[in-house]
Amino acid sequence: MRRSILILLMTLWMLPGSSVLGQKSRVQEVLERALDAQGGRERIEKIRDVFVKIGYRTFGKADVDGELHEYWRHPDQIRVEWLEMEEPSLVRVYDGKRGRFCRIRGGTTPGPVRPVEGEDLLQLLDFMRRLKIAMVRTLLTEGEAKLLRTPPGVQGMHFVKWSDNDDETLIFRIDDGEYRIRGVEIRKKSGERFTVDFERFQPFDGVTLPTKAVVYRRVSRKEPPEKVLRAQILDVRFDLPIEEEHYRNPARPIGS
Predict the structure, then answer these.
(1) N or C: fewer beta carbons within 10 Å in the chain?
(2) Distance of CA 119 to the CA centre of its chain
(3) Contact status, residue 23 vs residue 146, Cβ threshold 8 Å
(4) What torsion, rounded to 10 degrees, do the Cα atoms 132, 133, 139, 144 define?
(5) Nearest to 185 by CA among 175, 200, 196
(6) Closest to 131 in 3D by CA, of 53, 194, 72, 195
(7) pLDDT for residue 22 is more than 50
(8) What would the 3-class secondary structure string for 169-196 be?
């Protein structure tokens, strides 16, 4: 559950008209302005490698603190490191064709490298998908976007419905002033709903991202939302000199 919620969080770090043409042009305008607020199309399109360092706390029967390092190379390579006591404990990679993982003992001694399969592979690929979504350009180039009516009593906010599969729909809240993505509602086909609120926007090398997020889960409309995770971006870097081997071999540490 903890890793599933973290996958949902990767959605960060992101309208009816009189005709179909008017609908598309209006939602495109909103997303283009959100892209400009993030750093602009030219800056985003230049990015080939992304490193994100996230600290988090999950809430449940026992609160759990952790740290996550993600490396993504456009378009389809990813490396995810879960840390314990500031050292990697589990590393999963996908090199564009296959996934592999290994556990790291004491933060330095790698165990055997094994294939990532089944649900674990789907989770790893979804990490990569959500990193792409966090770059607002993906909302313009993939999937289907629609501008929704603003709910009664709500002002200064655009609501954009977006989806690229049948399993979930994302509803983005984009403010009408700075055009920042202030939050997203994740509606799962299973009926589960997650709400992510974004705060404290900060520029990282020309790209502005929210540095804090809080995730709430609602199982049904009859139950109140439950806070399940709080996360903070600790560092973001672009175009690091990461070698191809780091995306093929989870046992090879970054920097070697």
Answers:
(1) C
(2) 18
(3) yes
(4) 110
(5) 196
(6) 72
(7) no
(8) EEEEEEECCCCCEEEEEEEECCCCEEEE
pLDDT of residue 21: 35
Give the position of tokens 């998908």.
129
| Phi, psi for 208 (deg, rounded to 5) | -95, 125
Q: pLDDT digit string (tens) for 74-124?
A: 889 999 999 876 777 899 999 999 999 999 887 678 999 999 999 999 999
Name the CATH topology of 2-248.
Answer: outer membrane lipoprotein receptor (LolB), chain A (2.50.20)
Backbone phi, then psi, for 97, in 5-degree steps? -130, -40
How far apart CA 131 and CA 246 sit, in angstroms, is 18
Beta-bridge partners for 171: 161, 185
From the list 15, 43, 9, 5, the residue with the least C-alpha distance to 174 is 15
Q: What's the predicted TM-score (pTM) here?
A: 0.86
The CB density around residue 187, as the number of other CB atoms within 10 Å, is: 17
In angstroms, the CA 73 to CA 202 distance is 22
Judge contact between 127 and 117, C-beta under 8 A. Answer: no
How many Cα atoms sit within 13 Å of 187 on the Cβ side? 10
CB 68 within 8 A of CB 6: yes
CA distance 27 to 253: 43
**What is the DSSP code (8-state) at residue 59?**
-
